UniProtKB/TrEMBL annotation:
SUPFAM superfamilies: Trypsin-like serine proteases (SSF50494). This is Peptidase S1 domain-containing protein. The keyword Protease applies. Belongs to the peptidase S1 family. GO terms for molecular function: serine-type endopeptidase activity. Residues 24-452 form the Peptidase S1 domain. Keywords: Disulfide bond, Hydrolase, Protease, Serine protease, Signal.
Length: 452
């Protein structure tokens, strides 16, 4: 028996090029009994999925197992997370003996339930199968959909199983994540906003269980909640006093970057605030370490650019007003908007993990060069995400292999002490010679002034 791990779906999801564990975005709701082998692993909320493989065993991802407690329940036989179905408790959980949590190699886990499943139309085991190259597959899970909150209904998305070669070509170096022949790489349809399946959930090809969702890589932007400035330097307190974090308190994580532009407003990327309830995030100003210090502000108003296009990320800019006023100090300052010229040296700053995707909360920065339109087009043309760009954008390039990546969406780009750009997206994955795209702030000055 060969079992593979679904690793990649290369489409719009939550990060730019950094592997994330995750969820289905842009899926369709499943009908009752359509996926009778799916199980939800629930603590207070659902945290992973799995598949029933016989009367009392479930297959999931090894990285789901550390979250299992004596209170974890297994929900089967329903499409709706908080209604119907049957729950079981867990008697045993075993990770693959060669599972490596650093690289995700052998990310498989088995869970034994107390007792036996009662099979029915909505509760069934699934057989293993090996997907053919380019097979049409589905990933199933209770993933997040439009906004951050998890949907109640089971979702599925159609994906294509890629050959290892095509996968490697598309994603490049995933270091430290492992990509090898015992994994399946699956790709979502372009533009559909498909992201990844829930961790531990099934990848089903031709009615057979072909994989377990392990991790995903996206090469497109959209709301980011993971790390960015890769291989940059750690900022000193007060070095970027205009940089704020838009944080999601419920996850304790940076969601996007932002830049203070007036006593009570910041600029960020439109993609950061689109499809998000303002009450789900807060603005944190005045610290270089999100775990300590800083002042937290609630959001009072969000204005997304009226012609923001979610598909090509033209006009990716939003003004966010906070409740109250920023208290100006050495570590909290209003940025001055400036112009950026071709070949100017710029600095992107933002909060992000570096090596470990779950890690730090430190403000990082990296230097890059603003490219001319011609140079940008030339470098971007082989990128995975090559769309037209306009005068409201500026292209930045950190160089190949030096480890510099782009910022989280919304992060500040500065040049000669002025605020010149908002991190928007990367043409392809990090640090392999493709440019990153920023919203050119000066281009939007009139629009900004009508709001602040
Ligand atoms: C399990 O739930 C009980 C009751 O809600 C709670 O007191 C206990 O701390 C929980 N145990 C774990 C390991 O989460
Ligand atoms: C994972 O990385 C950490 C930190 O570098 C190291 O201590 C640990 O031994 C590694 N684990 C494995 C399984 O290699
Ligand atoms: C799979 O699809 C790719 C891209 O469309 C194509 O190049 C390749 O030949 C296909 N492989 C098979 C076995 O059909
Ligand atoms: C933010 O809003 C929440 C809910 O309305 C409130 O409880 C909290 O005190 C507010 N925080 C600040 C810093 O104003
Ligand atoms: C958004 O961009 C896509 C891709 O370039 C384009 O097809 C679509 O028409 C644009 N939408 C609007 C409303 O302009
Ligand atoms: C920018 O740099 C490129 C590559 O080094 C060079 O070819 C070009 O002439 C420079 N442009 C300007 C305006 O300095």
């Amino acid at each position: 028996m060969e079992l593979h791990l679904l690793i990649v779906s290369l489409m719009v999801c939550s990060t730019l090029g950094v592997p994330t564990r995750g969820r289905i975005f842009g899926g369709d709701p499943a009908s009752p009994g359509q996926f009778p082998y799916i199980v939800a692993l629930n603590n207070v909320d659902q945290f992973c999925d799995g598949s029933i493989i016989n009367k009392n065993w479930i297959l999931t991802a090894a990285h789901c197992l550390p979250d299992i407690t004596s209170n974890t329940s297994v929900l089967v036989g329903t499409n709706i997370e908080h209604s119907g179905g049957t729950t079981y408790s867990i008697s045993k959980a075993i990770a693959h003996e060669d599972y490596d949590s650093n690289t995700t190699q052998n990310d498989l886990g088995l869970i034994q339930i107390d007792g036996e499943f009662e099979f029915s139309d909505t509760v069934q085991a699934i057989e293993f199968g090996d997907p053919e190259e380019n097979a049409s597959c589905v990933a199933v899970g209770w993933g997040a959909t439009e906004h951050v909150s998890f949907p109640e209904e089971l979702q599925f998305v159609e994906l294509r199983a890629l050959s290892l070669e095509e996968c490697q070509e598309r994603v490049g170096d995933l270091d430290p994540f492992y990509l090898g022949p015992e994994q399946v790489c699956a790709l979502g349809p372009e533009g559909k906003g498909v992201c990844f399946g829930d961790s531990g959930g099934p990848l089903v090809c031709g009615g057979k269980l072909a994989g377990v969702v392990s991790y995903s890589v996206s090469v497109l932007p959209a709301v980011t909640h993971n790390v960015r400035v890769i291989g940059g330097n750690t900022a000193q307190p007060g070095q970027f006093p205009f940089a704020v974090s838009i944080m999601m308190p419920s996850f304790g994580q940076n969601w996007c970057g932002g830049t203070i532009i007036s006593k009570n407003s910041i600029l960020t990327a439109a993609q950061c605030m689109n499809n998000l309830f303002p009450e789900d995030v807060v603005v944190v100003a005045g610290t270089v370490d999100l775990r300590t210090g800083g002042t937290v502000y609630n959001i009072s108003q969000v204005t997304i650019h009226p012609t923001f296009n979610e598909t090509n990320l033209i006009d990716d800019i939003a003004v966010v007003k906070v409740d109250g006023e920023f208290e100006i100090s050495e570590s909290v300052q209003i940025a001055e908007i400036g112009e950026v010229l071709d070949n100017d040296t710029c600095t992107v700053s933002g909060w992000g993990a570096t090596e470990n995707i779950n890690a730090p909360a430190s403000l990082m920065f990296a230097n890059l060069r603003a490219l001319s339109v011609e140079e940008c087009d030339k470098l971007a043309e082989d990128g995975v995400f090559d769309v037209e760009r306009g005068p409201g954008q500026v292209c930045g390039f950190g160089g190949r292999g030096n480890g510099v990546c782009y910022g989280d969406a919304g992060d500040s780009l500065t040049s000669k002490g002025k605020f010149v750009g908002i991190a928007s997206y990367a043409v392809a994955q990090c640090a392999v010679g493709w440019p990153d795209i920023y919203t050119r702030v000066a281009y939007y000055k009139d629009w900004i002034n009508t709001i602040i």
